[in-house]
Design goal:
Blueprint (H helix, E strand, L loop, with lengths): L3 H13 L4 H13 L22 E8 L2 E8 L2 H14 L4 H6 L4 H5 L7 H20 L2
Antiparallel strand pairs: 1-2
């Protein structure tokens, strides 16, 4: 498994392959289609991330000192966005997740190209993931 920084750099390099944001959106949609889904039992109120325009469910398993995330959403772009977060953070220790600056989000420019409500949703997803990490420190 790669480090958080290695995973972030991989994503930055992938986004650099695209010249315009329509291509980047299409890539995010493709990432949404490849998101490993959570079990249906976790698609409930307890796993729903508040503050998102669309419905986003997130489940974390704490195994062998590491957190592993699964998610789903009713919106394909949101599925791609949560996939970008899970890809970087899943499989790491709570401390690593809590300390991760997630600077790749700014470097790929995603926040500037999301609607204000989707951008707030992205922040809510990050807060929820980091909340799971802090709860398991």
């Amino acid at each position: 498994m790669s480090t958080i920084l290695e995973a972030e750099n991989e994503i930055i390099e992938e986004f650099e392959l695209f010249d315009d944001w329509m291509d980047k959106y299409n890539y995010i949609i493709e990432l949404g289609k490849s998101l490993p889904l959570i079990d249906a039992q976790y698609k409930d109120e307890a796993h729903l991330i508040p503050g998102c325009q669309s419905q986003v469910w997130l489940h974390a398993d704490f195994t062998d000192g590491k957190l592993f995330f699964r998610a789903d959403s009713d919106a394909i772009i949101t599925k791609g966005i949560i996939n970008l977060l899970i890809r970087v953070l899943s499989g790491h220790t709570p401390q690593e997740i809590a300390d991760a600056p997630l600077s790749y989000i700014d470097q790929i420019g995603i926040k500037e190209h999301l609607s204000p409500t989707r951008s707030n949703g992205l922040l809510s997803m990050i807060q929820q993931i980091k909340g799971y990490a802090k709860a398991n420190l």
